[in-house]
Write a structure and sequence with these properties.
Layout lengths: L1 E2 L11 E5 L2 E5 L5 E2 L1 E7 L6 E7 L16 E9 L2 E8 L4 E7 L10 E4 L3 E7 L5 E7 L5 E8 L4 E10 L8 E8 L2 E8 L7 E7 L7 E2 L6 E2 L9 E11 L2 E9 L12 E9 L5 E3 L8 E2 L15 E2 L12 E2 L7 E2 L7 E3 L13 E6 L5 E8 L8 E9 L2 E10 L2 E10 L2 E2 L4 E4 L5 E7 L3 E7 L5 E8 L5 H7 L8 E7 L9 E10 L3
Length: 509
């Protein structure tokens, strides 16, 4: 048996490919940097982060992009010794691809294709033709196709409408496969929320006409109100020695229809029937516990739960916001500490504050960090933040108030501070800042140099949920991050913030 999601936390829009006995998967990253993580697996269940496709600003310009802009829906494919990752930067430039001999990198500079539409994908046909497929035309759009000339990096011919789906809005996330001489076009419809679904069509020609599966959608939970898994869709498939398998995104709402950790990657069996049409999971709903693929189990070393910042570089799980100024981050100026230099930029700005974060991957967990910070002015602060967007986040940190050092708790919902900022005077010395997460709430606390704990207050996970943000305050496609930050709130900080360690513990309560 295995446990879904196989990639918990903010890992939406999965795409997968197989090379030999190895599987590689990529996901969307939006405004976070570096972009498009690459995970490696040998059994489809256990995944290891090995790198990013986009780790240079020249590949990933994100300056001043809005939250949930940036990188949408990548596709990964392997052909003739090269890995191809194709995606969209909706903040600028549009659709492009990069290549690499090693999926861990380095990846090439972008080859830009066009600046309209989203969700591009590639099919490498047996005769050498490369088909470029993407969504065209917004909510009432269709799936279009052109030829990609790999020698010139240019698209050829006019965009042709090859399928409009089954009538649901947002015919998107296309992937085309050639299986036993038949072309299958699999897409998502209904928008990436509770009406999400996967549909499929087939044709003898890559240009169609495509025949819709009479049993579409082949995967959806839109009719399952009481199921704990919702918004199932945006899928890709891969053939293994144990048959075909599908990866897809889904969400885990809490306390009603509210999810805060983002769209996550799930795994489900995918089989072709005698009539040539596929069936997903025997037409049953996806479950948290499911029979594992009959592949040799391969577990990786667990991701470190306690990070002491003793190394000269951060591990791959840390992300920045937009394009960071790396001069504001140091692991060497004070050995054994992560030093953050606060700038004028705040967590509310559409910019790149001094911030580094990791995804929340468990509904119940404890997160804490040890901070050594002695602000000299009342505008200076540093601490721990739970971020969803620039307008929705919670912070517990250290600042100066009336010439005395204080721990504060600030909750920002729709760009407004709710319940006021709470302060508690802090004695000299380092302080431990922490968060205890449950499915419905976050509890914020600190421990002074003597180890005495003070609970500052709580915040609802609901107030950082995609439903609150996405339906009322502009779309949100991301998930919660636990981050370390420093800011001078309009001015550079006069002193750095030094973090001694960071701890993330899963708590099954």
């Amino acid at each position: 048996m295995f446990t879904n999601p196989v990639l918990p936390g903010f890992y939406p829009d999965p795409s997968i490919c197989k090379v030999g006995e190895d599987f590689y998967m990529v996901n969307s990253t939006f405004e976070y940097f570096p972009g498009v993580p690459v995970h490696h697996s040998k059994d489809l269940v256990h995944w290891k982060l090995i790198g990013y496709c986009l780790n240079r600003e020249s590949q990933l310009p994100l300056k001043n992009v809005r939250a949930s802009a940036g990188i949408y829906a990548p596709t990964i494919r392997y052909h003739d010794g090269l890995f191809y990752m194709i995606t969209t930067n909706v903040a600028g430039g549009g659709n492009f691809y990069v290549t690499a001999k090693d999926p861990a990198g380095p990846w090439s500079d972008p080859v830009w294709l066009d600046n309209e539409g989203i969700d591009p994908s590639l099919l490498f046909d047996d005769d050498g033709t490369v088909y470029y497929i993407r969504h065209v035309g917004g909510g009432d759009g269709y799936i279009g196709q052109r030829i990609l000339n790999l020698e010139t990096g240019k698209l050829e011919g006019e965009m042709k409408n090859i399928w409009g789906g089954t009538g649901g809005q947002w015919a998107e996330g296309p992937h085309m496969y050639k299986i036993d001489g038949t072309y299958y076009l699999m897409i998502s419809e209904g928008g990436t929320s509770y009406d999400h679904c996967v549909t499929i069509a087939r044709s003898d020609s890559p240009w169609g006409p495509f025949e819709s599966n009479p049993d579409n959608p082949i995967l959806t939970h839109r009719h399952l109100d009481d199921n704990p898994i919702h918004a199932v869709g945006h899928a890709d498939i891969v053939q293994t020695s144990d048959g075909w398998w599908m990866v897809c995104l889904a969400i885990r709402p809490q306390g009603g229809r509210f999810h805060h950790m983002g769209r996550e990657t799930f795994l489900v069996p995918f089989n072709f029937e005698k009539n040539g049409w596929p069936v997903v999971n025997e037409n049953k709903p996806i479950e948290f516990k499911m029979p594992a693929p009959r592949l040799k189990e391969h577990q990786w070393e667990p991701v470190a739960s306690h990070i002491d910042f003793e190394k000269e570089s951060l591990d791959l799980h840390w992300n920045y916001l937009r394009n960071p100024d790396f001069s504001n981050y140091s692991l060497t100026e004070r050995p054994g500490f992560l030093r953050l230099k606060g700038t004028a930029i705040t967590m509310s700005d559409r910019d790149s504050p001094t911030f580094i974060g990791r995804r929340q991957i468990d509904l119940t967990c404890d997160v804490s960090t040890s901070l050594d910070f002695n602000p000299q002015y009342e505008n200076e602060e540093a601490g721990l933040v739970i971020r969803q967007t620039d307008r929705f986040f919670y912070q517990i940190g250290v600042t100066l108030k009336e010439n005395k050092r204080n721990v504060f708790l600030r909750k920002v919902v729709d760009a407004q501070i709710v319940e006021g900022i709470q302060y508690v005077e802090l004695p000299d010395g380092p302080v431990v800042l922490g968060v205890r997460a449950t499915p419905l709430s976050y509890e914020f606390f600190f421990k002074d140099a003597d180890g005495e704990e003070t609970v500052m207050g709580t915040g609802l996970t609901k107030d950082l949920s995609v439903e609150i943000i996405g339906f009322e305050h502009g779309m949100c496609f991301t998930g919660t991050y636990f981050g370390l930050y420093a800011t001078g709130n309009g001015k550079p900080c006069s002193v750095p913030a030094d973090f001694d360690w960071y701890k993330y513990l899963f708590t099954n309560n």
